[in-house]
Amino acid sequence: MPTFVCSAILFDLDGVLVDSTRQVDREWREWAARKGVDGDAVMAIAHGVRTIEVIRRVAPYLDVEAEAAAIENHEAGDQRGVTVMPGALDLVRSIPDGRWGVVTSGSRLLASNRLRYCGLPVPEVLVTSDDVTNGKPHPEPYLLGAERLGFAPAECLVIEDAPAGIESARAGGMKVIGMASTYAADALGNADAVIGKLGQILVASNGAGKLGVEVK
What we know:
By secondary structure, the chain is of the alpha/beta class. The chain is built from 8 helices and 11 strands.
């Protein structure tokens, strides 16, 4: 497996640092049942994409902004089934301060609540759906994450679990490690490397202001 040299690391949240699959599935399917929408169609596109964009695709006739706000506010207060990903805390603690951030398709309230609920630090750089006009797979979220960290996109390494997020990062000119948690490994073929768990990643400073990220 490869070793990457970078200046900073950007993490997706759900499916990478926290396991929220059961909660996301429950939330969306309950919403779909209430609105008369096909729950399977929703779940086919929901992971890694902003809530408002999912609703625009499956139910554009609704008040999409109001529906998205209601879903995310409810999710933020209901963390049943959400757990920290094994190895997440050790991994972020191994990265120097100011050298990592989170880029998520959820709202700031939802992301902050999930991080705190799982015992993870809320990083100084937290890019959410509230901060962007275009969500993943558009490169805007990861480009904004790199900008806020103060590094060129090419100096940032991304860890993602969803094809939309991988596409977003690659479109921004970043290397990507795909994590086969939400999707099978063969769905993450556009990533530069694919892992099954965070414990396969080892981060070390090389003494020249760079991070060496070994994938085992």
